[in-house]
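Quick start: what a row looks like.
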Amino acid sequence: MTGFEIGGASAADMELIRRWADEEVWNPGDSDRFAFAVADPAGFLVGRIGGEPVACISAVRYGADFGFIGFYIARPAVRGRGYGIRLWRAGMERLDGRLIGLDGVVGQQDNYRKSGFRSAWNNVRYEGVPRPNGSGGGAGGDGGAGAGFEVVDAASLPFGLLAAYDRRFFPASRDAFLSAWTGLPGRTALAAVRDGRIEGLGVVRPCSGASRIGPLYASAPAVASALLHRLAEHTPDGVVAVDVPDANPSATALMVGLGLEPAFEAARMYTGPAPEVELAGLYGVTSLELG
């Protein structure tokens, strides 16, 4: 391992990491890196040999006591040589003393268990074109005022309301990240509002494959269906992908009812007890890389 050095990621490295994730068939968002960078600018590490990037990991701090691991990749040519585990240890050290979460692909889950992680639920990616007459949401499955709520541009709402709503489904505040995540060019963020209250939030973003929806929060399947259909209208071909926690049976049933098919799976794992969030309203997680 002579010559292997670990350092912070540059802006160019962040784009490189995105391409590596794409090659792993993770289908990251085209502009995710811009929101990731403001979440924790020092939270992305790159391992280099002779100055050449060969491995990466993200170890993002949220608040004072939570962290999330993602983007754990060693390039195929250097796997099995110990570089990945050194980078893993550096990431874990950065989050020492915190409850740590990650979304582990099937092939790595046993290794994560050896590092003290335990499964809380599975995030299953459902993908496809949602049927126009899926479960809930009124005529055409697209909801609206006739269903008792209105779907509006999330940017039209006070940001403080959006941030407080997001906090119900995520174990730490992440205002800077959320502001970037919902507002980056090329994305669409929609909220469901009833009597002045937010009852749902969804964001769709372009990717090299199916457009990804996340987060998808909702007070009921009809609200989630309305948001999903409206978000799908803002994609080039109507094909969307949602990472659905199987701990919310209503979310799984909705995706099946809409005709979406399972395409990918990762286990949400934590180093301690799973944090309390409103799983019943969590229809799609924000990101498998940052939680």
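That is the whole record. The longest strand covers residues 52-62. Residues 64 and 98 are 8 Å apart (CA to CA).
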